[in-house]
Amino acid sequence: MAKHSIILGNVGNFTDRFMGVGYQRDYTLEEMFDRVKSVKGVTGVELVGNWHINERNFKQVKKNLERTELSLVSIIPDHFGIPEYGKGAFTSKDPKIREKAVSDTKVMIDIAVELGGDLISLWPGQDGYDYFFQGNYIDERGWFEEGVRACCTYRPSCKISIEYKPKEPRNFSYASNVTSTLLMVQQINLSNLGVTIDYGHGSVAGENLAESVAILKKYGNKLFHVHMNDNYGSWDDDMITGSIHTIPFIEFFYWLKKTGYEGYISTDQYPYREDGRDACNESVRWFDVFESMVDRIDEQKITALYETGNACDISAFLRDLMFGR
Amino acid sequence: MAKHSIILGNVGNFTDRFMGVGYQRDYTLEEMFDRVKSVKGVTGVELVGNWHINERNFKQVKKNLERTELSLVSIIPDHFGIPEYGKGAFTSKDPKIREKAVSDTKVMIDIAVELGGDLISLWPGQDGYDYFFQGNYIDERGWFEEGVRACCTYRPSCKISIEYKPKEPRNFSYASNVTSTLLMVQQINLSNLGVTIDYGHGSVAGENLAESVAILKKYGNKLFHVHMNDNYGSWDDDMITGSIHTIPFIEFFYWLKKTGYEGYISTDQYPYREDGRDACNESVRWFDVFESMVDRIDEQKITALYETGNACDISAFLRDLMFGR
Amino acid sequence: MAKHSIILGNVGNFTDRFMGVGYQRDYTLEEMFDRVKSVKGVTGVELVGNWHINERNFKQVKKNLERTELSLVSIIPDHFGIPEYGKGAFTSKDPKIREKAVSDTKVMIDIAVELGGDLISLWPGQDGYDYFFQGNYIDERGWFEEGVRACCTYRPSCKISIEYKPKEPRNFSYASNVTSTLLMVQQINLSNLGVTIDYGHGSVAGENLAESVAILKKYGNKLFHVHMNDNYGSWDDDMITGSIHTIPFIEFFYWLKKTGYEGYISTDQYPYREDGRDACNESVRWFDVFESMVDRIDEQKITALYETGNACDISAFLRDLMFGR
Amino acid sequence: MAKHSIILGNVGNFTDRFMGVGYQRDYTLEEMFDRVKSVKGVTGVELVGNWHINERNFKQVKKNLERTELSLVSIIPDHFGIPEYGKGAFTSKDPKIREKAVSDTKVMIDIAVELGGDLISLWPGQDGYDYFFQGNYIDERGWFEEGVRACCTYRPSCKISIEYKPKEPRNFSYASNVTSTLLMVQQINLSNLGVTIDYGHGSVAGENLAESVAILKKYGNKLFHVHMNDNYGSWDDDMITGSIHTIPFIEFFYWLKKTGYEGYISTDQYPYREDGRDACNESVRWFDVFESMVDRIDEQKITALYETGNACDISAFLRDLMFGR
Question: What residue stretch is flagged as signal peptide (chains A, B, C, D) (predicted)?
């Protein structure tokens, strides 16, 4: 049975490149914790380095975790919002910045462990390139692997999980899709290293995310964490899960169950124009729908469907499952 | 209340560029009519020129229409499967071929009327271009308008409806999306000329089809016909309607109702590996689901939603409408 | 002969939703004017309302225009960076905000005229919707037309030009592509209303921009302004013009010349990680290349190519034009 | 120095799903061999199983190879054009068909070796799925690996190379992109197994193909073969190489050289409406341009560019390399 969590910033304020002042008002850390807590069924929270947690506000965060009884699901080190990392963190052409990416991560590992966490979700958003002839692909992938390896060996009890995304903020990311990332995970070859699926990132990469879950199962049981949102397919729109798609989410949750995924399922949204708390609540309510639907799937029936792959039978099966007709 | 129909070839055999021999067996005209007839709730059939109907088999088709009591919903003249039209029909650089495109259409208009039809659905699939510097865009759009105008004035009692598609078989089509086509319809400015929405073509064009229905309503009530199928967004996959998407179809059917669309809703699929009859049946069964859901929409509630546009309320509303939770 | 200009902010600092603090340092207004001026061949500048020009800094801007002898090419009113416009400006569900969108535009019209300008380039970035069932499409397009009409009739000597874009910051824009916008321009039907092509926006809309130039020529000579940048096709990456594509730009500049476009060609970029001045300079240097190539096109040869549309001949012609082989 | 070849069918006739009769006339095997031979600089030919080579016409093909002195670059077994393979070859849910996929491949291996070839380029076009809940992803990827392994161990002196493609004719392929395929290649772990890059397939998968070359180098030197064509980014348009893009091809050829690729570079096109021989010739002429440009790259300059990654310098460098300005 999956556990549900929310990335703290999801209930806050949002900017984009045109609305630098933010679409809404800012919230205090306390308010944000309360807003997460108010979503029924949510038992965990994720924090972004610098944005929500650092060495200076450590005690304040600890107090909020205790007060709300939310588990620290993961820390996402800030490798994307610091100008020094603007041209890459683990893959910066400057070796000092590459070192800093590792040492900053170690700080976050220590903080996470101290707060009772056991997971770092790395999102190497700036590790990539924009222009042709800009990236020295072999060297830079090598640097990425080196840096991540150094993070993994620092405290092997803490899991490190790489969140992939094909583009944004770089035009091309090195950890671009599930198999590109898995290849690096296999190359590094450490048991505390895995992959975070962000549903929307995978969609933009052209993946059917249920298949991505299966691939991570097949090649080493490497699904370590899940971020959820919805989009229209060409960009990381970061919308309410379930607001655009339905059937692919049912299949996704089915494969999570089938492969025995036991981690958290977090919202990871940018509800620019919505109340963030309400938008997260909506996603979690849709998680409930998809999970209860998966629980109602008759194993015998679905086994038979997989044996033939008959699309008309699948269609009828889903219509019945979803709408009883 | 919408009426349902099927394009005859949808229950037949299918080829693609790699499987030239066809994925299945061929069916006789009689068999195909029987297969269409066997789908519950279907009262009409569409025919493709040459492929299903021509001057030679006219009587045979007539007999089948009578026998099955299916209405002739439209004829789609074959402007795409004849080598002479390979580089364009209405927009061919050869004026003789442009003339032929018009005269072939007139033949189909006569046949349609004779068989009790009142609609020609033009799909100008070859009217476009592949390479940069290949299309003389102004002239060729002009030729397109001239040719369609000549078809419209031939028998004004017969409606002519242009089906748009962004690409395939050309890399760029002239009638590429709903507004590109509407612009030509306005330029030609004849009351018997309108637009056919193919749901999948519009999706590939990046449209939200509910909005396309609204646009056609706003600018002259020009939605004349509807073709249905589903796809993954980047290509005209021509799959079972409802097999990929759910909510966008609910919105689409809602706007069909809201704008008072009274024409037929046809399947337009390529079930390469499925039994065509069963695949059409599945689509029609999903039409039933979407239509009954639209019928259950509370007008007061939805009016309130449109007044605020609150995405969280919309999400909750849809979850309740779809799944009662 | 086209004239070249730069949007002032292009030589400044840049943020995105992850790097809210900006990738670079900020520049003063004076510095930015100097940076624009330093790009060889640039004779004009575009200003964004609020960001660069308002009622308070009017004199400072005027002084900078005089000092640098740059022409004011256009003002782009800020309909996208003010929280009140977060859910729409001309199409806000709140009539007071719709009125404000018009009155804010009128202020910018007055300022532009006072500064010697004759063009307002409207970019209605927030006028659209994000979720299904959120936009009341017919009403909202109607409001858009009303608002723009009010701007156009205010001072008919000032041209108003609508810049279209399929998405971002909304998931769906009303002025989404060239024909969607042209349809509204035709509906409003005023001679001082036209369309701004942003090359990258059109690419994301799936357009071949040379064809878009032709379409604007055909239906009323409505190309009023041009913004330039390059991208990978799925998103408005706002890169250096010519850094990704080559042949499509040659065709685009060819059609600008062929249709007699005489306005400015502006850079419109987001060089997050580059020096903005240098990135603009690069684009302008590529403009020079494309324009000189177009000037070398032999009219007789190209007329012959358009008569046959032979793709192999076109390929050989371009290879010779570009590389002399 | 790369060697150039042509897939025999590229100089023949072409069908699509609408133009089943073919856009052009058919050519005899002799004519096709002559047409390939007539393209300057081409020294090899690729053959598709069944379509061009089988046990019955073996001698005829042999004679043509000798007559034209073209090398047999590879055979592509027909796993996509036989109805039995319509729902999968190596991944068919029917074990007998999976066995047939292997045994058919073995026949082609024997023929290839007999004709002096040492490469089988597998294109598993039907190995994938169309609908959600249709593919049993873990089992089916496993079957794929089993089948390919059996082909590899049959005659280890013959290289086997998997050509990936994200979709078409299935909506999702198992060998979908470079890293998905490399993962299977690593799992099978045999030295005669590698990957074929089809430039257009990779583009549709969202790859920058120069990076794909680098990735194949980094993880085991696994680039075994190259197929060339061009497209608009969203579909396998199979156009003349160089007709759409320029700079990305320069970078691609640069990385081929940099990584020491020594195999053949083949055209793989579908010039539906062009003379196939002329369209192949155009591609090969563009190969010449790109290769000569790469040869003119100053190693010191490019090393400096890679050290900074300065996009403006790269832009200036390319403009000078391409156009001397």
Answer: none
Q: Tell whether the torsion through CA atoms of D179, D183, D184 and D189 is positive or negative.
A: positive
Helix (H, G, I), strand (E, B) or coil at C164: coil
Give the residue-averaged pLDDT of C31-59: 97
- Which residue from D minimizes the CA distance to C271? D311
Domain extent for B219: 3-297
Of C18, C21, C32, nearest in space to C280 by CA: C32
ipTM: 0.97
Chains within contact range of chain C (3+ C-beta pairs < 8 Å): A, B, D
Which residues have CB under 8 Å from C153's CB, separation 6+? Answer: C190
Q: Which of A77, A14, A10 is CA-nearest to residue A42?
A: A10
Gap between the Cα atoms of D84 and D96, Å rounded: 10
Which residues of chain D neighbour C323 with C-beta distances below 8 Å?
289, 322
Q: How many whole angstroms separate alpha carbon B199 and alpha carbon B180?
A: 16
pLDDT at D2: 81
Structural tokens at position C151: 């701007």
CATH code of residue B277: 3.20.20.150
Cβ atoms within 10 A of the Cβ of B324, count?
7
Look at residue C308 and tell me if it is in a domain: no
Q: What average pLDDT does range B59-68 have in this prediction?
A: 98
D122-180 residue pLDDT tens: 999 999 999 999 999 999 999 999 999 999 999 999 999 999 999 999 999 999 999 99
Q: How confident is the model at residue D1 (pLDDT cuts 50, 70, 90)?
A: low
Q: Band of the pLDDT at D325, cuts 50, 70, 90?
A: confident
Within-domain flag for C323: no
Indicate whether A221 belongs to any domain. Answer: yes
Question: Cα–Cα distance between B83 and C314 in angstroms, integer?
Answer: 22
Is C262 in the D-facing interface, judged by CB distances under 8 Å? no
Contacts with A136 (C-beta within 8 Å, 6 or more apart), sequence order: D306
- pLDDT band at residue C1, thresholds of 50, 70 and 90? low
Residue D4 CB partners (closer than 8 Å, separation 6+): D41, D42, D43, D44, D264, D265, D266, D284, D287
Nearest by CB to D134, which of A182, A248, A311?
A311
pLDDT value of position B2? 81
pLDDT at A1 over 80: no
CB pairs under 8 A between A and B: 93
List the 77-106 stretch of A: residues with Cβ below 8 A of D.
Answer: 87, 93
Would you state the pLDDT for residue A325? 85
Share of chain B above pLDDT 70, in %: 100
Interface residue D234 vs chain C (CB under 8 A): yes
Q: Which residues of C touch A239 (CB under 8 A)?
A: 130-131, 171
B214 touches chain C (CB under 8 A): yes
Tell me the nearest-neighbour CA distance from A210 into chain B, angstroms.
14
Per-residue b or e along B279-308, where b marks 16 or more CB atoms closer than 10 Å to that residue's CB: bbbbbbbbbebbbebbeebeeeebeebbee
Given this model, what pLDDT does residue A133 score?
Answer: 98
Q: Compare CB distances from B273 to D16, D22, D87 and report the shortest one's residue.
A: D87
Reply yes or no on whether the pLDDT at B1 is more than 70.
no
Interchain CB distance below 8 Å, B134 and C218: no
Structural domains counted in chain B: 1
Q: How many CB atoms lie within 10 A of CB C308?
A: 12
Domain membership flag for residue A306: no
Residue A212 and residue A180 in contact, taking contact as beta carbons nearer than 8 Å: no
How far off is chain B from C211, nearest CA to CA, in Å?
A: 6
Phi, psi of B85 (to 5 degrees): -90, 5
How much is the average pLDDT of A234-254? 98
Hey, CA dihedral for B254, B260, B264, B269, is it positive or negative? negative
What is residue C2's predicted lDDT score, i.e. its pLDDT? Answer: 81
